[in-house]
Amino acid sequence: MNNSEKKLFNKLLEEARDLAKENNKPIGIYLDKKIKEIASGYEGNPTEKTKEQYRKIYNRLLTDPKNKNKSASIILMNAGSKASFDLYRTAFRFCISEDIKKLRLEAEKCRQNKDYDGMKEKTTMAFKLAVVFQYQFLSHEKITFADVKTQDNFKKQVRSKKKGLKKLIEYSDLINSLSEEKAEKYFMPVAIYGLFGVRPAELQKGIALVAEESEGKKVIYGAVKGAKVSKNKGQETRYCKVFLDESNPADMKLYDHIISNGGKLSYTQEPENYESLRKLMSRNFNGASPYSYRHRVASDLKASGLSKTTIAMFLGHANDKSQSHYGYKQNGKSRGLSAQATNEVREVAANYADYTEKKERTQKFKTRLEAVKTGLSGAEGSHTAKKWKIGK
Question: What CATH number matches the domain at 165-341, 2.30.29, 1.10.443, 3.30.300, 1.10.1740?
């Protein structure tokens, strides 16, 4: 604990002592209340896979020899980019709050077993950790990326997959550069990443592929279950259509492979296969990764002149704004792509004029809807409008 954290610790400890004395109750009760109150400051609800990622990052940073005896804030100050800073901070917030909860549970078990010394020890440990958590992540003293980049020795590290697109090798060329054994091992995932731009987590869930001829051309359809899905985020399932380049041997190899399996094929990438592919690409292809092809496909979608709604559906987004973080039109090539998804895509205004136009369009829709509601009410009674929940 640094000096500021020690001051906060002593202040909160004194408050707990005063409450315990005033109410004639053990101090541990008030320490535990404060611990619980502080820990509730973390409101994240990550998936199990994301939790595991946070734990790996947290443990790696803490066990790194160069971070020995350093506080979380000092470690964060060494972040080389905003993306890494945000990731590290979120990992610390989740893991420290998780450690606090574990200590509280251990203290409760000690109490149930009448191990009061153990209970006191675990409560004190949890209280110290909670104080550090509050000071470094919840107080006005918490550091931001602005603090990081204003350091005299700060040197921004650019690791953007989006900005590395010019150096990204075509997926077919990547496969051709591999040995026969590795090409066999990685052909399916690389081809799917290259053609559909799915997230690695989505390919580990599995993708259903269908191959056929459409409009005189060879086509592969892919049904993808979204990896980043919540009430207002992502697409539960999207259906992507890709017209193949018949002069590209890799495209044709995937097509023929699916046809040989009856025209339908499901593929799931194992985590070990993904991890070994990621390392191979990072070492041998300018730091690229399977996710890099998501940006390449986004570039192709934009270069193909598709609507923002179609692009959002193809990428698995719930709104038409998220795609601005993916790819560049000038780095893409026009090709036959289309998509449908389970949810409608929300339109997000890009500027005030766009906002005004969409607002007027929405108002006209509401006016027409009110007219429909009135007509229904007059023709069939108000029960129909209530039953259909019109306008809700």
Answer: 1.10.443
